[in-house]
Amino acid sequence: MNAVKLRIREVEQVADAVVAVTMESMAGLDLAPWEPGAHVEVVLPSGLVRHYSLCGDPAERGTYRVAVLREDDGRGGSRELHDVATAGTVLEVRPPRNAFPLEPADGYLFLAGGIGITPILPMLGAAERAGLPWRLVYGGRSRSHMAFTGELAGYGDRVRIMADDVEGRPDLAAEISAEGPDRLVYACGPAPMLDRVAEAAAEAGAADRLRLERFEVAAADTTGEPFEVELSRTGVTVPVGADETVLGVLRARGITVPFSCENGYCGTCEAVVLDGEPDHRDTYLTDDEKAEGFTTMICVSRCVGPRLVLDL
């Protein structure tokens, strides 16, 4: 997917250590459309690529808004964005993708934890415009760390905000059990919260109605049978061992290829497959895209068979 250069229009502090960044076309053009649950990939000045959920209004075609929590103990992307995010800064942004779409239902229960409110926020607007019943339960460490509480106040008692240091943690099992079988449950937040949500949904018999988005992805299994990779542009063929990855082998030989997450979820290392069948281990491609076998993520994916030819 081709990136476009967007200019930061506005940076707003929306919670402790959280900034909302609104970006616009440098030429004043409409941006690619998106639906609630979508994210964009931001290419930072250092070359790091990070995914951020869109949390603005899809009807506002002239801007994208993301909100980013600064994690000083993270891998560096959030720190860098906080450091460079000023009005006028230009960033490369790849078009929206949506792996967390808002599916049709008779109503919704939304569960958000911390920065997990970002993909949920536009879903509330969509449910509201559709005239559907919905509730939001939003938890966090403290009110000062919870973004967009001012915007959420406009929804009245359909929004329940629970800070750990005041109200305590929500009873997720009770919240899920209170919803009828025609309601979908959408949840986004830190991994421990989502684990509790999954357990509560299973206990309530609602596992089939639960939709989750995890910001942290479990490490992919990259092991398997050895195979060879041919790089079509140079004709070079390199072996990939049982415990090696295509990316690791290429880098070890001084071959420069783009990469970021090294865990199959960002799409930066996507390579076109010219021959052979990829053994997909990523979470970036859709099931249909995997079935087509047109591209592969070389940081985690392997080969079904002895040989893979890539357009590299």
Automatic annotation (TrEMBL):
Molecular function via GO: 2 iron, 2 sulfur cluster binding; metal ion binding; oxidoreductase activity
Cofactor dependency: FAD
Residues in 2Fe-2S ferredoxin-type domain copies: 227-312
Domain FAD-binding FR-type positions: 1-103
Gene3D superfamilies recorded: 3.10.20.30, Nucleotide-binding domain of ferredoxin-NADP reductase (FNR) module, Translation factors
Keywords: 2Fe-2S, Flavoprotein, Iron, Iron-sulfur, Metal-binding, Oxidoreductase
UniProt-recorded name of the protein: Ferredoxin-NADP reductase
